[in-house]
């Protein structure tokens, strides 16, 4: 099984056309509209093999309205199924950590209630976590808490628009 996260850009006025096109691509688990800083959308891709995974990436990159993408490939994951909150604010926290500390940080973060899932990735970041909270302020504070943890060099929050 091959899994990854694609962060992408398009002209913001085209986002309402891009999202349905992304959802139509095989092996796309979830598509989110982001706040546009620095990305307009995210796609979670899970395919049975590397060839299928790359075919999905190729389709994303070749959509006429997509201007750029960054691909992060999952190497380890800790996924927890949770009951969604009635009113939620969701975000992706991109994390750079000290070399060799990924497993330790995954273990710490996967035990925190706000973390829906966390993955070690190969790309410009070491980990990404999907978080949820009952309000935007609490989500921002939790993201900042992650950034202050031992062995984390930097992190930033990308809010997901619902």
Could you list some keywords that capture this structure?
single chain; 162 residues; alpha+beta; Alpha-Beta Plaits; 4 helices; 26% helix; globular
Please tell me about this protein's structure.
This protein is of the alpha+beta class and 162 residues long. The protein has 2 domains: 2-73, Lrp/AsnC effector binding domain/regulation of amino acid metabolism (RAM) domain (Alpha-Beta Plaits); 74-161, Lrp/AsnC effector binding domain/regulation of amino acid metabolism (RAM) domain (Alpha-Beta Plaits). It is 26% helix and 44% strand. It has 4 helices and 8 strands. It has helices at 15-23, 50-61, 102-110, 136-147; strands at residues 2-10, 28-34, 41-47, 66-79, 89-97, 115-122, 127-133, 152-161. An 8-stranded antiparallel barrel has the order 1-3-2-8-5-7-6-4, surrounded by 4 helices. The longest helix is centred in the middle third of the chain and has 12 residues, at 50-61. The chain is globular.
């Amino acid at each position: 099984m091959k899994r990854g996260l694609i962060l992408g850009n398009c002209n913001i006025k085209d986002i309402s056309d891009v999202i349905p096109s992304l959802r139509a691509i095989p092996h796309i688990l979830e598509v989110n509209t982001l706040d546009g800083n620095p990305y307009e959308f995210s796609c979670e891709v899970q395919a049975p093999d590397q060839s299928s995974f790359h075919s999905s990436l190729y389709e994303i990159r070749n959509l006429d309205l997509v201007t750029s993408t960054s691909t992060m490939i999952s190497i380890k994951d800790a996924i927890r199924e949770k009951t969604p909150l009635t009113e939620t604010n969701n975000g992706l926290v991109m994390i750079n950590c000290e070399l060799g500390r990924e497993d330790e940080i995954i273990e710490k973060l996967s035990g925190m209630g706000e973390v829906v899932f966390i993955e070690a990735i190969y790309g410009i970041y070491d980990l990404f976590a999907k978080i949820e909270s009952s309000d935007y302020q609490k989500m921002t504070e939790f993201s900042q808490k992650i950034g202050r943890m031992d062995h984390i060099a930097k992190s930033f929050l990308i809010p997901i628009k619902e």
